[in-house]
Specification:
Blueprint (H helix, E strand, L loop, with lengths): L19 E13 L4 E7 L2 E7 L1 H4 L8 E10 L7 E10 L20 H6 L1 H4 L3 H23 L3 E2 L5 E2 L11 E4 L2 E5 L4 H11 L1 E9 L12 E10 L4 H22 L1 H7 L12 E3 H8 L10 H15 L3 E5 L28 E6 L2 E8 L4 H10 L8 H8 L5 E7 H8 L21
Parallel strand pairs: 6-10, 12-13
Antiparallel strand pairs: 1-2, 1-4, 2-3, 4-5, 7-9, 8-9, 10-11, 11-16, 13-14, 14-15, 15-16
The chain binds aspartyl-adenosine-5'-monophosphate.
Length: 435
């Protein structure tokens, strides 16, 4: 007899009643009632109900054991999708699973964050937990699709690097064959150099920050969605690409994670045709912060998020013109409006706030070799220390800029998680190196 092809739980509804079926998945739940017992099977597409004779119920493998079920598709309006499996032969595909640390079959997981994180290989199996990563994966598809269509080339740059890119403080040093090296804090230097090759590039990859603070928005390793493009006029051209990317990520979720959106009952962000922009100095005024403040504090970001929602009905707000003194040396000074005498106080860079949290940093970069040399010397360093990076500029680089978006922050705000760790498969932080 021909072996029966596997049917996925999510496709069982389309099988004609009376047809033989073969399902594979984990035992999600065993339910023993007086007259009948059920095995609920879970696979990557959802749940399927298998009807078991009470006499056979005690032989069912325990919850979470992977099984194969061969039986008959049978109409039952009460079953998920209106079809269940009857007359089953259940075969365990592994030894009986240990009792899970949390009851995965409950519609909502009643467990605190430490339990969820300590047992991540098991707790991610819960449909509502796994749905969060479905959002991340779908967002990545939208990110790539948007940029591929706009002529960008996907690149991958080294994660073991010679020097810090963002600031010296939070970099992990490693032993590289007996000499010091660092885990990349961002692909910044490489994505810029590759603009000289491809003109438009993007990278999706891990970056490392030795964050000394234990906060709900920082990880020691996160997924950075980096974009860089050449021949821009200023950072506003970068913001326009960012707008398209955000819209594409939302579309990705709608196309590939509709089930997760429904499961989690989400309000997806609305990406306005133009993202509202305010100047950093206006942002300080709005939140009542002193005018010499070099950065926005988390409570300022929250207040600005609420203001953007009220004023523009927008989940997003771009703040442009951050003070040069808090931005990395590759940042281009403000060119649009000379807001202060000398005008080098402000920069052509921006942060994008999403629902009151910094999601993106970006801007225009320096592109002339002499500007780099001056900026590096102004930091008290020697350009020679950046010789390999500066090669690109010596050999001609166009005006360019880009941005980086933190994937875990994006998902955390979409699901309105209190802690970024809830949107991270296996978080790394000050205290956590396992699982
Ligand atoms: P920045 O350092 O601001 O900019 O990082 C960009 C974005 O990455 C996310 N992010 C983090 N997410 C989780 N844990 C962290 N510790 C963490 N640190 C940052 C945030 C942030 O907005 N090279 C520049 C980008 C550029 O200009 O292209 C950079 O890395 O969402």
């Amino acid at each position: 007899m021909k072996p029966i092809e596997r049917t996925l739980a999510g496709h069982l509804h389309a099988v004609a009643p009376g047809e033989p079926v073969r399902l594979c998945g984990h035992v999600h739940r065993r339910r023993e009632l007086a007259a009948v017992s059920f095995l609920v099977l879970r696979d990557r597409t959802g749940l399927a109900q298998v009807v078991v004779k009470p006499a056979d119920a005690q032989d069912l493998p325990p919850e979470e054991t992977p099984v194969e079920v061969v039986g008959v598709a049978t109409a039952n309006p009460q079953a998920p999708g209106g079809v269940e499996v009857t007359a089953p032969v259940v075969t365990a595909l592994s030894e009986p699973a240990h009792t899970p640390p949390v009851e995965l079959w409950r519609p909502e997981l009643a467990a605190g964050l430490p339990t969820l994180l300590d047992h991540a290989p098991v707790t991610w199996r819960h449909p509502a937990v796994r749905a969060r990563w479905d959002l991340a994966a779908a967002s990545l598809r939208g990110f790539r699709a948007t940029l591929d269509a706009a002529g960008f080339t996907e690149v991958h740059s080294p994660k073991i690097v010679e020097s810090a890119t963002e600031s010296g403080a939070d970099v992990f040093e490693i032993d590289y064959f007996g000499r010091p090296a660092y885990l990349a804090q961002s692909p910044q230097f490489y994505k810029q150099q590759l603009v000289g090759v491809f003109e438009r590039v993007y990278e999706v990859g891990p970056v490392f920050r030795a964050e000394p603070h234990d906060t709900v928005r920082h990880l020691a390793e996160y997924v950075s969605l980096d974009v860089e493009l050449g021949f821009i006029r200023d950072h506003r051209d970068v913001l326009a690409v960012l707008r398209e990317v955000l819209a594409g990520m939302r579309t990705g979720i709608e196309m590939y994670a509709a089930g997760a959106v429904e499961r989690l009952d989400l309000n997806l962000p609305v990406v306005p045709p133009e993202i509202p922009v305010i100047h950093f100095s206006e942002a300080l005024e709005l939140v009542g912060a002193p005018e010499d403040e070099p950065d926005l504090a988390p409570e300022h970001e929250r207040a600005l998020g609420a203001w953007a929602r009220e004023t523009y009905d927008s989940d997003f707000l771009a703040v442009e013109g951050y003070p040069m003194r808090k931005r990395p040396f590759y940042t281009h000074a403000e060119s649009r409006q000379a807001r202060s005498p000398g005008s080098s106080r402000w920069s052509n860079s921006f942060d994008l706030l999403f629902r009151g949290l910094e999601l993106v940093t970006g801007g225009q970069r320096l592109h002339r070799l002499t500007d780099y040399e001056a900026a590096i010397r102004a930091r008290g360093e020697e350009p020679a220390a950046y010789a390999s990076y500066l090669q690109a500029f010596a050999h001609g680089m166009p005006p360019h800029g880009g941005f980086a978006l933190g994937l875990e922050r994006w998902v955390a705000r979409i699901v309105e998680a209190a802690n970024i760790r809830e949107a991270t498969l296996f978080p790394r932080d000050l205290h956590r190196l396992t699982p």
